[in-house]
User: What shape does this take?
Amino acid sequence: MTKALMFPLISACLLFTILGDRGACGTKGGAVNKTPAEKNDKLATGVWGGDHIRADVTAGGAQIEFDCAQGAIEQAIVLNSKGDFDVPGKYAPEHGGPVRRDEESKAISVHYVGTMRGSELSLTITNTDTKESIGEYTLTHGSEGRVMKCR
Assistant: This one.
């Protein structure tokens, strides 16, 4: 091999070695972040589900279905550096049978407190006024969940 070809070849190998150490997508050590959070630390959009719960998360909040209730979060769900959030929302108990036209909603103010670890979300719902726990759930991103509505 001639000296004229050796320098460019060695330079190219050195360059690939330095850049290759950054790994896929610029992550350290080649690890890929598979956590379902978006770039601005919001909870990943899409379906989250578990036993007795299903949440449809959007950029502006979430619509939540329970066995005998429904809920709503009307703001972006922003995660802190530990993957936690605490956001206000509504929770409306439902009942079996038909809903009358003049029936008023019994929605109450609640706090949705969550901790995300990987693709799993632990969620606790607490009545804002009474501080009573309404329920604790585990949801998985991409799962439809298992909800059996009151009928």
User: Anything to note?
Assistant: The radius of gyration is 24 Å. Helices lie at 3-20.
